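Final report, Chapter 2: Outcomes

The project's central promise was a pipeline that accepts a single protein chain and returns its three-dimensional structure in a standardized token representation, suitable for archiving and comparison. That pipeline is now operational. To close this chapter, we reproduce one record exactly as it appears in the project archive, with the input sequence first and the structure output second.
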Amino acid sequence: SGLAALRLYCEELSRWSARLNLTALRTPEEVVREGILDSLACLPLIPPGPLQVVDVGSGAGFPALPLKLVRPDLSVTLVEASRKKATFLVHAARFLGLTGVRVVRARAEAMGTDPREAGGYDLGLARAVAPPPDAGRLVRPLLRPEGLFLVQLGAGPLPPGAWDRLLALGFEVVRELPLPPALGRPGRRVVALRRVA
């Protein structure tokens, strides 16, 4: 079941993290609340049906791997420049018996200029890889026209002008979802943006 798989993922992440420092989340409670549940908070904004998903700066696999565990119909490409993190992602996908997961050890900037990757994805994710305008710059070339980019925002306000810079890249807001306060600090939210041509 998805729940059992999520537990296995948590345990394996903790085991590897003890040696490799994969994530800043230290305790099992932090991994569950700020890793797993925070990732699953994106679910209501993800359209139904099989989708090609790209997760830029995947790190330990948040948010893409928890989403894949509960939405097996998603085909997920995890983009991670760090060798140790990419190695963990390959291992985690195999360990969890996941199909439709591809790990690319590359910088997202390089992916966006690759004609085999550019414009190939329905949904882009980029959790905590860079401030929203920079993340948007990395994700947008990978999205097909009308593709969605889910931006996970912290509790504090964005720097002045950051939101305008993000939209100016060629995005429009589709929907905003406040996260339950139980998932960490109040005021956090996920915003779905659509790529406009």
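Archive annotation: The mean pLDDT is 90.
This record, like all others produced under the grant, will remain available to the consortium after the project formally closes.
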